């Protein structure tokens, strides 16, 4: 194999890995600079991609390194090359789905907005959503104050709090929280689709959720995923208003941009404080031990599971598609959780140890694109990666289109499907797609789309000759 023939020259390994990682990071940076709206929409996967790439490059260049979780040495190699190609396929699919010509066709055309066609004194959807969300958030805080110790003040891990004291509302938040954040983001920006200011009420609700997560011991991962899903609707509206050429000041009138920057800085400060508190106070790490734990968490654990797949599939040619499919879809250790990480941990660790860790509610980081190479091998894996990239990017485009066309009912029913696809691109969770509940979600979204489409047609039919879906027929 080519990998074996190059194994005697670590410098070539380092150069190949660095070049592959540099190309993907440059593509992400280019999107952030030249197409900030798409950068906001894809922030969730771009951050995950960049972090994993840096970790894999670190393992490739500075290996062999000891992994505490795997209890073995990993690296060096060129494992960054296939994962960089995989991530590049996703980025290419996003750029194709959100190509400027397609966006121009979608958002071209005149006519009044949906909000201007609604009768005065009609149903206040935003008001109803606000009060429902407010009751839920208030219930979370009441539940926290009445259920037992507050993890932030009791130096308690969030997993222990959820297992011992978490109430029904807390468990609902853990299951649906990012999707709730996405809906709050939609209602935050919805008025701007009709040239009105942000609905700040939903921004305050989101801030309350973030503060709650801080109080119950959550750290970077929760803040990151909640914030990314909350920001997606903002990116969608930026696309819809042709913000690729407009100034940010034009879209963010008055002090809105400054307030958003202050909020972002406060969130970063909160994340840093939560991480420091967790490692120093809750876990009691200090000095050299703290540096070791941080280096493992930041530079090793993000890429170690990919290294194990790379070693099995690309170096040893050792994969079993049938076994992987069986453990993923038919006989996972815990069918209610991500079966991909369960499979990868069983392959990387002694089975008893892997099951013990999973029983504690923990799991290692990774899953995508590992799962597709475990299923398809070194060649078929890339085909599966490309397929997942196309499905994800096209569905993201559908979600964005529904947001800017004010199809809020459809967006509501698309949200859990969109969340599942997003989690798949980051963690490789594929077993959710074969569950009956997922099929029900798809059916519900189709019914919502058809019903809302009919309602929109009847609403706009009062204006003869007006096309209620500008650009949609052209897009089809």
How would you characterize the overall build of this protein?
This protein has 476 residues and is an all-alpha fold. The chain has a domain at 119-299. The protein contains 24 helices and two strands. It has helices spanning 2-6, 10-34, 36-41, 43-62, 80-97, 100-107, 114-117, 125-147, 151-154, 158-164, 168-189, 200-215, 220-240, 248-251, 256-282, 287-300, 304-315, 321-330, 339-348, 351-359, 370-404, 408-427, 436-460, 472-475, and strands at 65-67, 72-74. Strands 1-2 form a two-stranded antiparallel ribbon. Helix 11 (168-189) runs parallel beside helix 13, helix 19 (339-348) runs antiparallel to helix 20 and helix 22 (408-427) packs antiparallel against helix 23 (436-460). The longest helix is centred in the last third of the chain and has 35 residues, at 370-404. The model is unreliable at 1-7, 243-249 and 463-476 (pLDDT under 50).
Multimerization state: single chain
Q: Which strand-content bin applies to the residues? A: under 5%
Query: How far apart lie the N and C ends?
Result: 46 Å
Number of strands: 2
Shape: globular
What share of residues is helical? over 70%
Quote the average pLDDT: 85
| Spatial order of strands in the largest sheet | 1-2
What string, H for helix and E for strand, traces the elements in order? HHHHEEHHHHHHHHHHHHHHHHHHHH
Number of helices: 24
From the alpha-carbon coordinates, what is the Rg to the nearest angstrom? 23 Å
Q: Strand pairing plus helix content: what structural class?
A: mainly alpha
Point out poorly predicted stretches: 1-7, 243-249, 463-476
Biggest sheet record = 2 strands, antiparallel
